[in-house]
Design a protein that fits this description.
single chain, alpha/beta, 7 helices, 8 strands, 22% strand
């Protein structure tokens, strides 16, 4: 970490009060990266420079406190994983889980994802996980899984690479099916509007939201698996 006051990594000017979890960020150098210069300069070389191998690289957008990603990385030690999250508390919770499991194949980035091409290189990703993103009702143009994301994935996702999408929102699910149907470079491998009625549930890894949602609500989980041609 370059020597400068911690707040300068996250804010343009000093504040009177800071999120208390911000001060824990330097405590997890093996599992947290928040220096934007390092993130941008590692583009195209995540596996080689960060994980010191040539294993396949997978990304989760909105990794939260990492129930999903830490379990996935633990089950698949021969893959590399990046989790992207913006909230300090969730990043600290995620780093603690990765450290407790002694995971050497999982790192979290504190970053707002505007364009994947900003920090992921050409044909660098083998897969992308998007779990329960905001459906942005009434402002659907703000959705993560969109034409703009597919344009980025045209560049950064390998041929036969996959997108894994889960949502509780029916319209987001239906709109995504239509989005992929109208795309030139992607096909739907599998989809269901009731994940827990299929045999996929046996290997399904629950997110934090999914645990909460299933315990308090009675609505089907929708799932789509997409492949790049």
């Amino acid at each position: 970490m370059k020597e400068k006051e911690l707040w300068q990594y996250f804010f343009n000017k000093p504040k009177k009060n800071y999120n208390k979890y911000m001060f824990e960020m330097p405590n997890y150098p093996n599992h947290l990266i928040y220096d934007s210069e390092i993130i941008l300069s590692t583009k195209g070389n995540w596996s080689k420079n960060l994980f010191k191998n040539t294993n396949d690289l997978y990304l989760e957008i909105g990794s939260g406190s990492a129930n999903f990603t830490s379990t996935l990385a633990n089950l698949n030690p021969n893959n590399n994983y990046l989790g992207v999250e913006i909230r300090f508390k969730r990043l600290i919770q995620a780093a603690k889980k990765a450290e407790k499991l002694s995971l050497k194949n999982l790192v979290f980035l504190k970053k707002m994802v505007n364009r994947l091409t900003e920090f992921i290189g050409e044909n660098e990703l083998s897969g992308l996980y998007i779990n329960f993103p905001d459906p942005w009702e009434g402002e659907e143009h703000k959705r993560i899984l969109s034409e703009k994301l597919l344009e980025d994935l045209d560049i950064v996702l390998k041929k036969n690479g996959k997108i894994f999408f889960k949502t509780d929102h029916l319209n987001y699910y239906l709109d995504t099916l239509e989005l992929i149907k109208n795309s030139n470079n992607y096909d739907i491998v599998y989809n269901t509007d009731d994940l827990y009625s299929t045999n996929l549930v046996e290997h399904n890894i629950k997110t934090e939201f999914e645990h909460l949602f299933l315990s308090k609500h009675n609505m089907n989980i929708k799932y789509i698996e997409i492949i790049k041609k």
